[in-house]
């Protein structure tokens, strides 16, 4: 049986016209003759390095899952690439995607990671993909947080099953920024087993249609959104009342303080020298209290009124 290689394919007169090629070999060969390639299948091989793709500038789909790739590299010339499949390799860092300005789908699920490690994301690549990436598959990668993915605001589909996500507050915060998210699969994450998990994510994702493989009924979504709005309004009202109760009435406090208060001095001395309160056009404390009290007598106790009466009479 003849083994199919790039060299053998190159002998074909129509080689340069091929748009779809599946090449089953261990080391990625020279594809300089494949200038018209749009789809390249290289999955289920033993490829350890991404290379020799510089001439495939028209490539839109690249399938390289289930190989031995440990580093995402040499993809900068693939400006038209829209779908990249790298699942089942040995990648530890999602990087090297800075120049892929047309990438809409990225599949990096099920990486063969060292024990105890998780798949991490290079901020530069995530930032570059923020305006184009719509579908992301990061399942089975021991991921325990997704803050680094927050810039991906164009995402419509996220597959993140079999990871270690458990902070629902974090999930709500990130997902609420993805206004176009329609499908979300978080099955078999610790967060899935927490109280109100489904309700909280449905209210956070305004147009989500499918959560963990279950369709979201629009009537149920609206009920949950209204319920959350009502709950937030009640909490806001309660918080406002609590703050109001904590603020003391300044006038009432003035009459109930100890010896530091001006009226706590010898009363007879104050009554015998009313002129001291009026010299140089200064308005006395009693005058001020008297004026303030005309429309607010209901806030004083009988003891407060008696004290006020004595002070005012003494000044006149």
From TrEMBL:
Annotated Pfam families: LRR_8
Alphabetized UniProt keyword annotations: Leucine-rich repeat, Repeat
Signal peptide region: none
Positions of the UniProt region annotated as Disordered: 256-297
InterPro entries for the chain: Leu-rich_rpt, LRR_dom_sf, SDS22/Internalin_LRR
Claim: Repeat is one of the keywords in the record: yes
Record keyword Transmembrane helix present: no
Protein name: Protein phosphatase 1 regulatory subunit 42
Organism: Sinocyclocheilus grahami (Dianchi golden-line fish)
Gene that this sequence comes from: ppp1r42
């Amino acid at each position: 049986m003849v083994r199919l290689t790039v060299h053998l394919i190159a002998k074909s007169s129509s080689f340069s016209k091929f748009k779809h090629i599946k090449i089953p070999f261990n080391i990625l060969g020279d594809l300089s003759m494949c200038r018209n390639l749009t789809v390249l299948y290289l999955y289920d091989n033993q490829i350890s390095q991404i290379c020799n793709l510089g001439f495939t500038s028209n490539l839109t789909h690249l399938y390289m899952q289930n190989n031995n790739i440990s580093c995402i590299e040499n993809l900068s010339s693939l400006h038209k690439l829209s779908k990249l499949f790298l699942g089942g390799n040995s990648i530890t860092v999602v990087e090297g995607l800075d120049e892929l300005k047309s990438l809409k789908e990225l599949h990096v699920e099920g990486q063969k990671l060292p024990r105890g490690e998780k798949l991490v994301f290079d901020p530069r690549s995530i930032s570059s993909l923020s305006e184009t990436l719509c579908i992301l598959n990061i399942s089975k990668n021991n991921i325990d947080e997704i803050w680094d993915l927050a810039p991906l605001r164009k995402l419509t589909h996220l597959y993140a099953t079999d990871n270690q996500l458990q902070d629902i507050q974090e999930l709500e915060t990130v997902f609420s920024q993805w206004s176009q998210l329609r499908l979300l699969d978080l099955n078999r994450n610790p967060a899935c087993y927490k109280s109100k998990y489904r309700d909280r994510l449905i209210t956070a994702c305004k147009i989500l249609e499918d959560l963990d493989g279950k369709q979201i009924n629009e009537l149920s979504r609206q009920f949950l959104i209204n319920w959350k709005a009502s709950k937030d309004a009640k909490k806001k009202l309660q918080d406002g009342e609590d703050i109001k109760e904590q603020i003391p009435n300044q006038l009432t406090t003035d009459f109930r303080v100890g010896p530091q208060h001006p009226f706590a001095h010898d009363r007879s001395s104050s009554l015998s020298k009313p002129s001291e309160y009026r010299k140089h056009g200064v308005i006395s404390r009693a005058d001020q209290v008297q004026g303030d009290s005309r429309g607010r007598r209901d806030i004083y106790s009988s003891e407060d009124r008696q004290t006020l009466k004595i002070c005012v009479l003494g000044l006149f």
